[in-house]
Design brief:
14 helices, 3 domains, mainly alpha, Ubiquitin-like (UB roll), elongated, single chain, 3-stranded antiparallel beta sheet
Length: 401
């Protein structure tokens, strides 16, 4: 059974060469390299590629920034990547860059080397770099992609920062209600039972809630505290297909923000593809492959089908996620010869709409949660005090007699 061996060697002209070769053993690999008239300096079993999903957004941005600097400086890509990997020394990104540099040194085009590592680099990344190489503007494509990645990361970070305070208020609310229903109300229930007091309807309702609410509150706390790590794990292992459509976009207040953020990201990805000299269907396909929304990918397929049939985008009609303004504006921009500018305007428009809703979110959620807390605690106190007042009156009356 063949396995992969990594080697460093020199040609007869003294040029350094490294890469991987498949062979049944070290001796077999040595013979193959001798047949190629290479002087072997180092030969060892290749490291097994790491698994566990694609690079994180931060790692991909860091890698893309390195590529921008290398292509702008004119340094040979494989040599530059090798230097970058040596500086990082260890870690998943360093290992991925080191393996990529080995492939490039062996003569593999960068788009092919990235395509063969779909488990590490997104498939759309390889297609975009291939377009940049063909158009002769790789540095410009990488710069546009870097801006797109930063835009998407900023939108996600802004949403999470905005939700942080309401989430803390929700956790405190659940904790207070759990304490009331789990400890305070049962203690009063025992007192009322011992004194055989006739309870008002409001008190009976609160007593009933003390049995129903604890499991519900524990479930809410578990969902809030474990929801973020769970979503992260699902995305890390590419198991989040349909999560955006089935759950996140159905949440009131959050859904519209997510929808506009997705549209802004989709328009920006199409713009990156168009500026990389892709034709419009290919640019839409690129944006579709990046999107986490299945419904947005279906909208993309409809738009690509229209273009394939020779029709214009403004005949698309109603779509599931993409607003009607987007295809109409894209068709107008294409006719005017300024599609990238039109897409940039659409990105700014939907990004601004998402930002406005994000900024308004704390002003809606936080007072709502505080009001729920105040009403819940106030209702519990009043309901528990009503029998106590009756009990005190009964005891006082008995004492007078």
């Amino acid at each position: 059974m063949n396995q992969s061996f990594s080697y460093r060697a020199q040609t007869r002209m003294g040029e350094a060469l490294s890469g991987n070769i498949d062979a049944g053993s070290v001796e077999d690999a040595q013979r193959k390299l001798d047949l190629l008239q290479l002087h072997v300096i180092e030969l060892k079993a290749a490291e097994k590629p790491r698994t566990g999903g694609t690079l994180s957004a931060g790692d991909l941005i860091a890698f893309n920034q390195q590529l921008i600097h290398l292509t702008s400086a004119g340094l040979p890509l494989e040599r530059g990547l090798r230097l970058v990997a040596e500086e990082m020394r260890r870690g998943r990104l360093a290992s991925a860059i080191r393996e990529l540099a080995s492939d490039l040194e062996a003569g593999t085009p960068i788009e092919k080397a990235l395509e063969s590592r779909r488990g590490v680099f997104p498939a759309s990344y390889a297609r975009l770099l291939e377009a940049g190489v063909k158009s002769g503007s790789l540095a410009g494509v990488l710069l546009n992609l870097s801006r797109h990645l930063e835009l998407m990361r900023r939108l996600r970070a802004t949403l999470w920062r905005t939700l942080a305070y309401p989430i803390v208020v929700l956790v405190v609310l659940c904790g207070v209600l759990l304490f009331l229903t789990g400890h305070v109300i049962p203690g009063f229930s025992k007192i009322f039972y011992d004194f055989k007091i006739e309870l008002p309807d409001a008190t009976k309702f609160v007593m009933l809630m003390s049995h129903v609410m604890p499991p519900v509150l524990i479930g809410i706390l578990a969902l809030v505290l474990c929801g973020g790590p769970l979503v992260y794990l699902l995305r890390k292992f590419d198991l989040d297909q349909g999560l955006t459509d089935s759950t996140i976009m159905r949440i009131p207040l959050i859904g519209p923000i997510m929808s506009r953020s997705l549209v802004a990201g989709w328009c920006d990805a199409v713009r990156v593809g168009v500026e990389a000299s892709m034709d419009l269907p290919a640019a839409i396909a690129l944006a579709s492959s990046i999107s986490p929304s299945r419904r947005l990918r279906q909208d993309s397929e409809i738009l690509m089908a229209l273009l394939t049939d020779g029709r214009t985008l403004d005949t698309a009609g109603r779509l599931m996620v993409v607003p009607a303004t987007v295809p109409v504006s894209m068709a107008h921009g294409a006719r005017m010869g300024d599609l990238p500018g039109t897409l940039k305007s659409l990105v700014d428009l939907y990004q601004q709409q998402a930002d406005i809703r994000v900024q308004a979110l704390p002003g809606i959620l936080t007072p709502m949660l505080l009001l729920i807390m105040a009403v819940s605690i106030g209702t519990a106190i009043v309901a528990l005090m009503m029998p106590m007042i009756c009990l005190i009156g009964a005891v006082s009356g008995t004492g007078k007699k």
